[in-house]
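Risk register update: the risk of archive-format incompatibility is retired. Evidence:
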Amino acid sequence: MQEVRFRSGDDLLYGQFWAAPGRRKGALLLVHGFNSNLEEYGKAPAWLATAGYDCLAFDQSGFGKSEGEVGRTDLERARRDIAAATKELRDWSSDIPFGVVGHSLGGAYAAAAIGPGTPFRAAVLAQPLDRMWDEIHPVGQAIYHLLGKRAERRAAKGLPPGRVPYKSRSDKLFVSREAQEEAGRPDFLLRHVNLANYRMAYTLSGSEWAKQAKVPTLVVVSPHDLVVRPRHSMRVYDALPEPKALLEHKGGHSCFRDLDGRFIVDGMVAWFDRHLVHAGA
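Archived output:
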């Protein structure tokens, strides 16, 4: 594994590049989810590299080891970061086809990245988010509205928007008891939510972005996901044009680090083998 740094606008981003040890079949960009960082992928980059795919996992602006306003995210920032990371990946992995993998909110952002003019030939959306607002309890929505509007008024005056605690428990992320105990309160998740994300939280729509997809897409889902409701991920799947497919597993939301992580990666490899390697042959 090679640690890398590259620019996205004014921010210096951090990433990890995993080179396939033998014949390279393609190169994959891994996009993490909300309030998270590249560590959420666990051993998946190494497994994908062993299967013949160069991988670049990176921390989006404001997350993990990357520069930027801490915890701030929206489609404009994500598109900028994905474009910068794709350019970095191209420097490491020229002359082979590209695919993209996104998890949770990263799955929604990946759906936006595979529309017209995309550099990617195939995609995997793991537990993709449709509307973040739909994952918040109605009482929480009312409170978030009050705090979010206050944050916008503060931002208009040049003041920090503020933040609220981000509650996350391992038993909501993992099915495996072993994975729960190992993770504790997962270090790859921020402990606060940036209130500047308020407008993004109730306006984004992964299913709307998915309608514009131009590449074959595999959607990974689980009936045991307690963070993004499975029926909401299915809205993203239903919006995608063909060719598409579903891969169901038995783990939780943090799927790559849970009990079926290897099973999911094997399914991804089969998908990319078919739609990157064979389609480009």
